[in-house]
Structure formats: C-alpha cells, structure tokens
Design goal:
Elements: H1 7-17, E1 20-25, H2 30-42, E2 45-51, H3 53-62, H4 66-71, E3 73-76
Parallel strand pairs: 1-2, 2-3
Length: about 80
C-alpha cells in the first residue's frame, strides 16, 4: 500500500474503509460539530455526540449541520 502523504489521500483511504463510530465529547462546540458533519458527509465517520442535547441541536442548526443531528446518536449528559 502506498504511503499516505496528503489529507486528500487520507480521506480517500478512510472512505474506502467505510464509516467509523466516533465519540464527540462536549459536542455543543461549533467547530466540533462542523468537523463531525463534514466527516459524516464524506462517509468516513458516524458520530456519537455527548453533551446537552438541546444545546447540541441548537448549535448544529445555527451552523448548517442539521443533517448531523438527524443521523448522529446523541447522548444527553445533562438529562
């Protein structure tokens, strides 16, 4: 297998392997949600979002990541 030397090559290899389940702690952070949504859209990760479910949903909608909320597992740690 050739060495992976770019992020594009890394993403391509990850896509070949299929999505991996990834936990995102304190998932009401916009940067974390945007990264999780991007990985979901690329088909390389299935996110488990941990934190205040209401706040996670609000931040996701405010950052054009509503598709992530529909497809991710959310564990409400404030419940």
């Amino acid at each position: 297998m050739p060495a992976i030397t770019t992020f594009a090559a890394l993403r391509a290899r990850a896509a070949q392997l299929g999505p991996t389940r990834v936990g995102v702690v304190v998932a009401d952070d916009s940067v974390a949600l945007e990264a999780a949504a991007g990985a979901l859209r690329l088909g390389i990760a299935q996110s488990v979002l941990l934190g205040d479910a209401g706040r996670i949903a609000a931040v996701a909608r405010a950052n054009d990541c509503a598709d992530l909320i529909e497809r991710a597992e959310i564990i409400d740690t404030d419940a």
